[in-house]
Amino acid sequence: MTKTFADQVRETEARHVLQTYKRAPIVLVRGQGPRVWDTEGKDYLDFTSGVGVASLGHANPGLARVVAEQASTLVHTSNLFFHPYQAELSEKLARLSGLDRAFFCNSGTEAMEACLKFARRYWYTKGERQRTGFVALTRAFHGRTFGSLSVTADPHYREPFEPLVPGVTFVDPGDTDALAAAVTDRTAAVVVEPIQGEGGIRPASQEFMKGLRALCDEHDLMLVLDEVQCGVARTGKLYAHEHYGITPDILATAKGIGGGFPLGACLATENAASGMVIGTHGSTFGGNPLAMAAGMAVLDIAATPEFLNHVQQMGERLRAALEQMIPNHDQLFDSVRGMGLMLGVKMKSDSRAFVGYLRERGLLTVAAGDNVFRVLPPLIIEESHIREFVDGLSAAAADYEVPAAA
Ligand SMILES: *Cc1c(COP(=O)(O)O)cnc(C)c1O
Which residue of 52, 257, 320, 376 shows the fewest CB atoms closer than 10 Å? Predict the structure, then answer.
């Protein structure tokens, strides 16, 4: 048998790419809106958006044009010099988020590293050098580099790399009393995802988030929100904390903000950023003209009231359709969680196996903790895509046989 192109890709990767990913076997070559195609010409409805990244859909013409134009004008300058676009994007982000200052980087984990450094440096500058600790939540995910890994609770991610950054205490989400008890005179900041993504699409409660802000105010602590997954219009607000009527001191944003182009930022109030003076942080690639152009193109679309309204409406319809379907398949599905177009379906069996089954039937979703599969469609989906997805999901659920436990 002659090898297909996909076989060749898989074999070469197996030899030469570090084997840290358990990839699904398909090889994707093209995308358009909410759809992607593999080497065999088979198409998939992509309700992963590359884990919440391709927020404007694939091959978005506006984003493609801006990136192409910038790529043929000026790609990179380093941070040795000014160029016009960090000013432009930081001003826009400040206006939209109320957080005065931005540090630009290239990923979520880098954004979190910056958040943690901002918080520590704040206290260092204030002369309270013992304030180096962090309080974080169980089931949180903040990234894979040492700092962000240190505030990630899951032993599966942490243990092989210990010792990590010391002084991190974990409390369960929702437990305001435990949170208050965990704060000491050595705490620099509390670090929270408003909606836990990898952990299984778990929105924080209103009560918990309000208590969190009050606690941070009381102790003058930095509140760091990780909105890497739930930010940039994903929940129908530009940032998810707007649903809770609270504001952070420091915020991490990445994933959707570049629409697929690698871009992250740490945003902070003037006060929280005050310790980060010249020489305290930096990035060679961070804030390059090409990334800034992509970020501007995404925000020009995603931060408009019409677009946010669209996400809210599609989120409500998708949620309602999923909730309506669940009683027909209640041996398989338990409930729907999330906000806007950041949804998760809690299953009664292994969600990873079901995600594989859906993929074979042309629907892409992404597994998360707690036997949840995440539904993270591009934010530009229309009702027809919701119908296609829910019909496909319902048919798949009817045919699915839960694999025997290994
Ligand atoms: C994905 C994610 C990260 C890490 O982002 P990378 O770009 O993969 O480094 C951090 N925090 C949250 C909440 C995420 O979902």
Answer: 320
